[in-house]
Structures are given as C-alpha cells and as structure tokens.
Specification:
There is one protein chain. The chain is 68% helix and 9% strand. It has a 4-stranded antiparallel beta sheet.
C-alpha cells in the first residue's frame, strides 16, 4: 500500500459517521425547545408578577394592590406586602431564576455549536450543553418552588399569573430537553461504537 493510500484510510477511519435525518431532526427540535424555554423564562423574569390573590399582586420586583378604582398601585418595597420573609426571600429567587436564563443561553450556544461545527468534540459540546440546560432546570425550579413557599398563605391555583406559568413551563422544558439531549447523545454514541466493531 502506498503512503497516500495509508493516509486516506487513516482519514476515513477518523471521520465521524453521517447523522441520520431522524437524529438531526430530534437535535434540532431540542435546540428549538430550549430557545423557546429561554424566551418564556426571560419574559417571566422581566415581568415578575407571579401571584394575584385578594386584590394583591405579588412579584419578584413589585408588590401591587388593586384600589377601589380598579387601578394597580405598585411599589418596589416588598415589605409593604406584609408577608414574612418576602422582601429578603425574593433576592435569592431573582438571582436563581436570572442565573438560570444565563446558564441556559450558554447551554443553548453549546448545543448549536455542536451541530454547526461537526468536529471531534461535537459530542462533548452537546453533552456539556445538555448538562448546562439541566443546571438551568435546577435553578429555575428552585426559584419557582421557593416563591411558592414564600407566599404559601396567599396561594390559590387560579391566583398564579400567566408569567408564573411561563416560568413553570420553562423549567419543565429545561428538564425535558436536558434529559433528552443527554439520552440522544448516549444513543448515538452507542450506535457509533457498534459501527466500529
């Protein structure tokens, strides 16, 4: 065998197998769903009004009361809500849910880069992105649960606002897509390992 033939065989041996259409579709859907979760979570955090109960609107940034003239009067001093621990408790909640979005953006970036740059580290980038999405889930879910615990005396199922449900759905999507990303990565790793045998 000539030296050129040996080099060609070596290059072909190190080349990654082509992805199937189904695998590419699943990975694209995971990326799309993570992007939707990032948008939902961002909207939820920016608005921050998560619970409406007894004419009062509790949020991450504001506390509002509904006056007799049906006009919301909002203040940023959460001590006026007269809920024990709310003014101090929302500080770590804000930090957790905001940091969850930042981590999710980095995870989303790694997921997209792993699909665009088809190099030897693409699987590792995908796995790292999926792990970051799961970290976003943990931060986001902890924030949502902590807020619910803080205002437990005012909780009603119908009192949760649309922005609260946006954060709840975003946390669920982070979990679902992080787990799915790791699972599809392990499945394709097993398939490529079988192909080498």
């Amino acid at each position: 065998m000539t030296a050129i033939g040996a080099q060609v065989q070596q290059l072909l041996a190190h080349r990654r197998p082509q992805k199937s259409f189904f695998e590419t579709l699943i990975r694209s859907l995971i990326i799309l769903c993570v992007a939707i979760a990032v948008v939902l979570s961002s909207i939820s955090i920016c608005d921050g009004r998560w619970l409406f109960a007894r004419g009062q609107l509790f949020g991450l940034w504001h506390f509002c009361t509904l006056g007799n003239d049906s006009v919301l009067k909002c203040v940023t001093d959460l001590r006026l809500a007269q809920v024990e621990g709310l003014s101090v408790g929302v500080i770590p909640i804000r930090s957790m849910v905001s940091f969850a979005v930042v981590v999710a953006i980095f995870g989303l970036e790694l997921l997209m880069v792993s699909q665009v740059c088809d190099d030897a580290n693409a699987r590792r980038k995908w796995a790292m992105g999926s792990v970051l999405i799961l970290v976003s889930f943990l931060l986001s879910a902890t924030g949502v649960l902590s807020f619910s615990i803080l205002v437990k005396d005012h909780l009603t199922f119908t009192g949760f606002t649309l922005t609260y449900w946006c954060e709840f759905i975003a946390a669920f999507l982070f979990f679902l897509n992080g787990i799915s990303g790791l699972h599809i990565n392990s499945l394709t790793h097993l398939r490529s390992g079988v192909g080498k045998i």
